[in-house]
Amino acid sequence: MTTNHPFQIPLSVGLHDDARFENFYSQGNELICASLKAAAHAEGEQFIYIWGGEGVGCTHLLQAVCHEADPAGTTAAYLPLDELKHMGGGILDGMEYLDLVCLDSIDVVVGDKQWEEALFHFFNRIREQGNILIIAASSAPRYLGINLPDLASRLSWGVVFQVQALDDATKLKAIQMRATARGLEFSEDVARYLLHRASRNMNDLTSLLDTLDQASLSAKRKVTIPFIKEVTGL
């Protein structure tokens, strides 16, 4: 099974257009980003496992890999298992022939015998093909609670990275960076207001930036603190 585009696969799965490495504030996660960029070019480690709590950016990074893979000529697929669990482990059949496969939210299928066996066999097949597998979860492999011992052992192969959460000072820089990427005129005072009034989860903050971007374009107004209050009620 091959493809000339990372998300032209027989599944209803897309990538967020702004989930790219240039939109990810990498401070504290530089080695992870470097390893994932190498994988996008079909280089470096064959197996990479990244984990972290909600909002640290695991999904963003996996999708960034697939965006990076496309112009590099690397065939790739992004599979969010939280969305695809109901389809069963058979969706992995043939995926081993892609240069790179990214499996997101693997923890949601842990405990399902059929899925654990499917993952075990897929791991073996992609390893035999010499292609790259990147997995993301909310916890380290040893804490997933996998029932199939052979799968548990394989998830500990390769490189395991914890994606570090941003502290408040770094989140402030990240908010400003993402605002600038959207073409928003964003002062530091506005960024601080968002950080202290809105959710501190980066996923939520990113969604809020999308809302403000659309509202700003529609109203043809700059994003100020009064404008944020008017649009969001914060």
Name the strands of the widest sheet in spatial order.
Answer: 2-3-4-1-5
Strand segment tally? 5
Determine the N-to-C terminus distance. Answer: 49 Å
Sheet with the most strands? Answer: 5 strands, parallel
CATH class of the largest domain: Alpha Beta
Shape: elongated
Overall pLDDT: 87
β content, as a range? 5-15%
CATH fold call of the largest domain: Rossmann fold
Q: Give the CATH architecture of the largest domain.
A: 3-Layer(aba) Sandwich
Radius of gyration: 19 Å
Residue ranges: pLDDT <50 for 5 or more in a row?
1-10
**In sequence order, what are the helices and strands, one letter per element?**
HEHEHEHEHEHHHH
Number of domains: 2
Please state the structural category: alpha/beta
Number of H/I helices: 9
Structure keywords:
Rossmann fold; Helicase, Ruva Protein, domain 3; alpha/beta; 9 helices; 44% helix; 234 residues
